[in-house]
Queue: 2 jobs
Job 1
Amino acid sequence: MPWLPTPREPLLRVAVTGGTHGNEMSGVYLARHWLQCPEELRRPSFSAIPILANPEASAACSRYVGQDLNRSFTSAVLTSRATSNDPYEVTRARELNQWLGPKASGQAFDFILDLHNTTANMRACILANSDCCAFAMHMCHYLQLQNPELPCHVIHYQSGETFSLQSVAKMGLSLELGPQPQGVLQADIFSQMRALVASSLDFIELFNQGTGFPAFEMEVYRHCGEEDFPRTEAGDLAGIVHPQLQDQDFEPLQPGAPIFQLFSGEEVLYQGDRTVYPMFINEAAYYEKHMAFMKTEKTSILVPALPPLPAAAPIQTP
Amino acid sequence: MPWLPTPREPLLRVAVTGGTHGNEMSGVYLARHWLQCPEELRRPSFSAIPILANPEASAACSRYVGQDLNRSFTSAVLTSRATSNDPYEVTRARELNQWLGPKASGQAFDFILDLHNTTANMRACILANSDCCAFAMHMCHYLQLQNPELPCHVIHYQSGETFSLQSVAKMGLSLELGPQPQGVLQADIFSQMRALVASSLDFIELFNQGTGFPAFEMEVYRHCGEEDFPRTEAGDLAGIVHPQLQDQDFEPLQPGAPIFQLFSGEEVLYQGDRTVYPMFINEAAYYEKHMAFMKTEKTSILVPALPPLPAAAPIQTP
């Protein structure tokens, strides 16, 4: 795969964003806590800025109030003229783009780490755009090595126009932890997310201080499609995720295996022609997106070495 | 405890209500399914009516749109004059009271079985008002015997004015199944709820056909208080349910045991002076009600025999 260039200067402008979806509580409360106690995000060479990305949705404890903020960072949204009828998240996306971007510009933040929860049994995983840079993959690898008790699987989204909050910065990743119900804070997931953020900042600090990292091979799950629930002619749900598929995120799904149970009692079998690895199985927020689960292929990628910064690179302490 | 009189006639007017909270999906989808296929609720002596109790909240997949419907069946709400500013659930409570009540009248339905989910690890349990009748406790006992794989614990709410949907009928119970995130349908919980509803209707059928049931002793959990989250001076959350308490619903909580973990890392210990049994630990819907968990006492009650209906009682087939 083609790799975007790795940074040749220290990363000084870093943001950690929580509450992009206002009912994903680990990020909401970590952001609120860090806004009061920002020292946890300080490292010798930089300080990451905590941001509550969607304050109105967080106050309402809902995913969004007008539209999904994490699908709003497209050039169509960011460059169109503001009107009084814009949904709140359109306005907020433009604000965040002014603050952390502008997207795809030299002024953009160096890195955004965006914090999410899922109701699916995804445990701890990391989402990246498939055309991301080797730097982000080295950070993933570091998280895996530093947190061996967590799976820290890496998922690559399909390429195409990016739309997520993290895409505003020059580089970015999303942490996705579950299962956790919407509107609930669970101590174990809260602690895991906090530890992963700390490791991410530690990795940036190592890089800023001149550490290089060797090439390595990494297993990634690459998005290759989606599966909707069975539906009635009127579009209502006609069934439910099969108990044999529920909670089996990251496990292989073979053609012919049961994936849904109709309310009438019948089973629906997977019709695909090859093994896939389902993700976000039965995620609450994806019912409205007509996705019962995401399909991925498991593949292996060779990530090139991350060369150390030139010794002369100035480390500015902000 | 004093017992209300047991019925002396067959129960012919029975309702099964789902979607009283629109994001508790088992009841929402069972009600929708039964409205299409009502035969599952038929028994020889009666047919239970399926009702989607809060259609607007179910369409929005939210607990409520204006106020909590399941706290709206008070005499203040039901007897006050309608205005154009009434929240949707106030109007809907009056409609349901006209249909299934009027509450506390001879015209009221014989039985309402109301279906709920919780994000807490409550498994399958049954909620009753503490001044309920022996008939309802015999139904609970029957559910326990017929579904030995489920705990089917019984919880008694404090007496006082009733406010729940089930209180509109002469008798009623709520089924509460979890853990299930809001907005998610899980196959195992869906099947358990469906089986418990079937057993409940079977019990009514046995009673209608003239079966009597002997006295028995039953363990119940009696509501005795609530515990809020630790909060900042501004009222925001200052901590999270302690990992040692999370998911420990129905387990004894001793004075001095840790119940919360502050974001700063400190532990908060339980200050009570006696052992309690926590319920609804970390339920999403109760954050706004300032309840991190409900406290109950475990006690044993002697339920008197349920005498058979007189042989001459006419069984009308509707």
Job 2
Amino acid sequence: MFLHDKKPLHTVKVDGPNPKFAAMLQEQLGGANGELKAAMQYMSQSFRIKDPEIKDMMLDIAAEELSHMEMVSMLITQLNGGELQANQATVGEVQTHVLTGLAPGLINASGHPWTADYVNVTGDLVADLLSDIAAEMRAKVVYEYLYRQIDDKGVRETIDFLLNREEAHNQLFRKALGKIAQTGSSRDFGVTEDSKLYFNLSTPGGQAFDLSHIHPPH
Amino acid sequence: MFLHDKKPLHTVKVDGPNPKFAAMLQEQLGGANGELKAAMQYMSQSFRIKDPEIKDMMLDIAAEELSHMEMVSMLITQLNGGELQANQATVGEVQTHVLTGLAPGLINASGHPWTADYVNVTGDLVADLLSDIAAEMRAKVVYEYLYRQIDDKGVRETIDFLLNREEAHNQLFRKALGKIAQTGSSRDFGVTEDSKLYFNLSTPGGQAFDLSHIHPPH
Amino acid sequence: MFLHDKKPLHTVKVDGPNPKFAAMLQEQLGGANGELKAAMQYMSQSFRIKDPEIKDMMLDIAAEELSHMEMVSMLITQLNGGELQANQATVGEVQTHVLTGLAPGLINASGHPWTADYVNVTGDLVADLLSDIAAEMRAKVVYEYLYRQIDDKGVRETIDFLLNREEAHNQLFRKALGKIAQTGSSRDFGVTEDSKLYFNLSTPGGQAFDLSHIHPPH
Amino acid sequence: MFLHDKKPLHTVKVDGPNPKFAAMLQEQLGGANGELKAAMQYMSQSFRIKDPEIKDMMLDIAAEELSHMEMVSMLITQLNGGELQANQATVGEVQTHVLTGLAPGLINASGHPWTADYVNVTGDLVADLLSDIAAEMRAKVVYEYLYRQIDDKGVRETIDFLLNREEAHNQLFRKALGKIAQTGSSRDFGVTEDSKLYFNLSTPGGQAFDLSHIHPPH
Amino acid sequence: MFLHDKKPLHTVKVDGPNPKFAAMLQEQLGGANGELKAAMQYMSQSFRIKDPEIKDMMLDIAAEELSHMEMVSMLITQLNGGELQANQATVGEVQTHVLTGLAPGLINASGHPWTADYVNVTGDLVADLLSDIAAEMRAKVVYEYLYRQIDDKGVRETIDFLLNREEAHNQLFRKALGKIAQTGSSRDFGVTEDSKLYFNLSTPGGQAFDLSHIHPPH
Amino acid sequence: MFLHDKKPLHTVKVDGPNPKFAAMLQEQLGGANGELKAAMQYMSQSFRIKDPEIKDMMLDIAAEELSHMEMVSMLITQLNGGELQANQATVGEVQTHVLTGLAPGLINASGHPWTADYVNVTGDLVADLLSDIAAEMRAKVVYEYLYRQIDDKGVRETIDFLLNREEAHNQLFRKALGKIAQTGSSRDFGVTEDSKLYFNLSTPGGQAFDLSHIHPPH
């Protein structure tokens, strides 16, 4: 069961309105590497996990990502200020000013709606943890890109907090992967000599391809 | 901030595996009127609400919908059983058997991924509460359709619980609407005589249209 | 059968070109609460309705929404002017200047294509009429947001007309709902005590949750 | 302005219920080459056309496609019968039985929702008419595929009618193309020797590629 | 089998960075008429073609379109320069500056991700070749729109090359269509008198419709 | 530049038609972890990579994934046989039998079209290589799921080959990651104490949450 506490996980307070950066921050609310994606991926993966410790960790992190989602939404709400002004909001999506009445939508920085196509679930714990480690790294990179493009100290403080939490999750997923590394997809499955070939399918410009080694006689 | 409690909101226990019904139930996990949609709609709407009581109610219900989402996922997981068997899973989506390893995906009964296009947020509280009332009614109807097509007593008991909760939310949203009915979009905005016309744009087959009343001379 | 009359439902004449506002207006052509959505929702709902009066009303309004779609397209076409100038079109979508040759596309203000995911059809007349009432209210709110951000008198006159028509449809749907309020999903369906509980799943920050009432012994 | 006549364009009467074929027919309601796509493509293209005859033809055909959409919806409604029975509806989409209450949804045969990504509009009349000719041919092919897989005489009669109408539209579009063939994209635009080369980028298996003619010295 | 040669098909060198035009050019990388769409359409169509000459041509052109995709990506990469600067990138999509680290994404000019809904495959060679001819014409029109809005000589030279190649493909598809024109969907399929009617479903404003010829007595 | 060789990378020959398994195999052609996704991800990532060895490897593997895509398409084409028979194709998508004329479409096993939302590109080489390692692992898992559900020896031989190639790519990506592990996102970026906390946001059922450590006084 999920519960909500009225206090946010971490205080959010921007220096002042900045609708353009609000649009850019939508990427971490409703984008491919954003907080909703993270929450949904870990929650979805948790449902068939049998290891109680890892299952619990997945749901802990999912709850935290929902709390991050709340924090990013607070950032966006504060940055949007109180005026509809599409003419001044010239970066990326504009639905904020014509559709949602300045409320944060579940869209990315260009206005593309969040989709479950972002979520990776395979039911194989090794594959799923690797997907989570990669997802946290991508989320961290996006926060870095956003951090570099804003001077507002309040925004920077919040991004800094969120970015460090992604790093913390990354370490937890890596530790879990270490624990179960010898199960699931990491076991050999019909590994043959085919997995050891390197197919050089490119060639320096203008030279002839020698394809004879690729098509052995049958 | 969101928190997770290891116990579910309500016990979930199916009589036995039923992969076909598992596929059908996906509609209420990742479909247009499902639990994820409900949770995301109320959470998204809450962020700019100033009335503290209504804001709190929105987040209470959002947390409960996330808990419902967990319950529906448990139902699906139990119904899917333990065997990949796409050949037997002839109703609707088949990703469960080739992609997610029997874990519940964020897709609807036909395999269409969840999208934020399902979520209605306008920043106008009257419009948003009306959207919520309609959403709860649709969710209830879908649960009725599912209930009629399953005999499993455990499944029926859970659907019955969920369906009644939608009704309870509906009543809460209606009460909130009553409280604020004279604000936001319910105020008159440039209402003129145009809002009182009925345009009869259809006609009994074979008769002539009299369009003269629609095109007044300018 | 649908028919087309060469005259528009209402004259459309903008004061002058305004490509930025053209992009914003796309929201009501191809967006979540736009005219195409309205037309498709009422048309789709009509097909299984048995009450001849309500079925007829649905198709009347669907035909009018298609006519509104034509009017919004005329507005956009006039506002786009005659020059491809993506460099000046800095608000929202840019396909108008690189893909459609200034023709209005079925996209929203940020360039997201229209999708049938916007359309709510359940086959239950109460649920469908509630969805329609909520849809008309949202459409009205979006027109208000657009109205506030434009000075062009011709555009304002057309938006004013369209907004009032949404209000008129709203009243028709409410009247129809009154007529059939005791059918369909409004009948009690297994309503138990569960529908009367209020689950308080939030708490003032820092306090302890008392969850004992949520998990009764089984 | 669009109008609706209560009589359908052509009588629709199936021999009996057939939910599987209803699902297959969804392809021509909400699929990539279906009637909604056709109606929206011609309507969208019409808005910037200056030639009054061609503009009128576009809107005539758009209105007819909307009327076809109504006919296909009637077919589906009759074929779905009166019982929710997802367990028997083992072909393609299943939303009909869990979401729409047997009403025809704007989805294709597998349940994918209609999207404006299907619609081709460029604002260049030659390109648009070529797109329309290709679209009509594809629509005809899909009707042929459906015709071959059904014995119901009522269904066959309706498909036969619709298929012949696509052929008729095809001829109209070809005639219009003949009329304006020397305008728009058909004019030479920077045509150089590059447009006359044939790049042979494939080779019989195992042979060497001679790429020297592709990379001339600069 | 596909192979990659390190040299591009044609040298790409822009005069200088231009992030706004980079965003506009995304339309031909990940948009509805872009290079990825072309490559995927011809590759997908080729798989069931029996005519060896046409199958070979399809795969030749598919390989060339992949090479064009590489060229457009090089253009975008050079135009994006080396600085994240969402505040200066005010035209269309902004994911380039917050998500992809200036790498070209598979999105269109407004940030909508590429989708296979753009791809037309029917398995009928006449319909498929007509789709290809129309697709090449649309691609050419989009390149013309882009060409008109850029002064950079390096960009213009590349667009000029690509545009001419579309024209060359167009001629190849037309020639193939001539070769097989009497097969597949071009054969008469149940053509009746219905295909020869013209339904005039529009009327000059204010006049009465005479529908009597449309509803013959049954 | 890409080139096409008429011979496939590896011979493909199924024992006999099996339309149901053809639908299941669509997952690896047009699904979230399929061959098109892999090809597009590596190609897109390659464009801004400066390390010539890694760039070359990315494009080698992209070319091989396109060749795998060709092999999977051949499998599907052979499995679909020569008859449209939607009534017998009761697993997953049905567009094959009503839309594509038995040609393999760029859709997944349930008929959802391929989308670039599957592709992960961040411009940060560490994040991108981690995404690739996770992607290869997921692809391998899906091939295992498919392998287990088919007896056809020809199909099994091809899947076995493809699965082993994913493993080979995985090793290449891991080696590349080892080479550049100290660049890009792996460098410390504002790592503070926040990255070392573990937030325990879950609790055993029925116990009270102690939130005092989460909300330190400010």
